[in-house]
Write a structure and sequence with these properties.
The complex is a heterodimer of chains A (112) and B (112). Chain A is mostly beta strands and 112 residues long. Chain A has strands at 4-7, 10-14, 19-25, 32-37, 43-49, 55-58, 61-66, 71-76, 85-93, 99-102, 106-111. In chain B, strand 4 (31-37) and strand 5 form a beta hairpin. The mean pLDDT of chain B is 94. The chains are: A mainly beta (112), B mainly beta (112). Chains A and B meet through strand 5 and strand 10 of A and strand 10 of B.
Chain lengths: 112, 112
């Protein structure tokens, strides 16, 4: 059974600081997603990572994928308050049920 | 322009009284999903349709049913809502299995 683990689950940080959220998964997959969710809102797609070594950046967020280590990271550079949200990683279980498994999410709170 | 639309945004029902939630999409995507998300938890996949093919998750209660009368619309029927069914229900679409999911705004269900 595929397990997707994120850490930390909660993170409080100061504006201007850098930090990394980690997403580990337990079985082979070459497709990983990062989503953002604001309180009371739906999920917004941030990145889709499709191959080993893939790196994508959007503004202050950068995501990477290491399929050999079964690890993805979401790096936040010079955090700003507007990035406060819950971030979910999700992994595609291809050819085995063909479904996406979500991690528990990382609740990020950036202090002004 | 909204691409995945859910109605209603808020639904209040009584214990045991059937309720139907609606999702429509303008993306012409093949796959439509229904997720249940409880407070501070990850979304939990209930079922998905690939075109007309219905795929039920093994742990989805029989109380939950779905219909997809055409490409654009998908419905979630809760036959006898219990207090534990109070949650946010998210509809999502993707062009194909494993591709980026686009989420609707969600329907928040309250069971009295």
């Amino acid at each position: 059974e595929l397990k997707v683990e994120q850490n930390p689950l909660f993170l409080s940080m100061q504006e201007g600081k850098n930090y990394t959220i980690y997403c580990n998964y337990s079985t082979t997959s070459d497709r990983l997603y990062w989503y953002r969710q604001d309180p009371g809102k739906s999920l917004e797609s941030l990145f889709v990572l499709l191959s080993n070594g893939a790196v994508k950046q959007e503004g202050r967020l950068m995501a990477s994928l290491d399929t050999k280590a079964r690890l993805s990271t979401l790096h936040i550079t010079a955090a700003v308050h507007d990035l406060s949200a819950t971030y979910f990683c999700a992994v595609f279980l291809m050819n085995r049920d063909d479904k996406i498994i979500f991690g528990k999410g990382t609740r990020l709170h950036i202090l002004p | 322009d909204a691409m995945v639309i859910q109605n209603p945004r808020y639904q209040v029902t009584q214990f045991g009284k059937p309720v139907t939630l609606s999702c429509s999409q303008t993306l012409n995507h093949n796959v439509m999903y229904w997720y249940q998300q409880k407070s501070s938890q990850a979304p939990k996949l209930l079922f998905h349709y690939y075109d007309k093919d219905f795929n039920n998750e093994a742990d989805t209660p029989d109380n939950f049913q779905s219909r997809r009368p055409n490409t654009s619309f998908c419905f979630l029927d809760i036959r006898s809502p219990g207090l534990g069914d109070a949650a946010m229900y998210l509809c999502a679409t993707s062009r194909d299995l494993g591709e980026t999911q686009y989420f609707g705004p969600g329907t928040r269900l309250l069971v009295l």
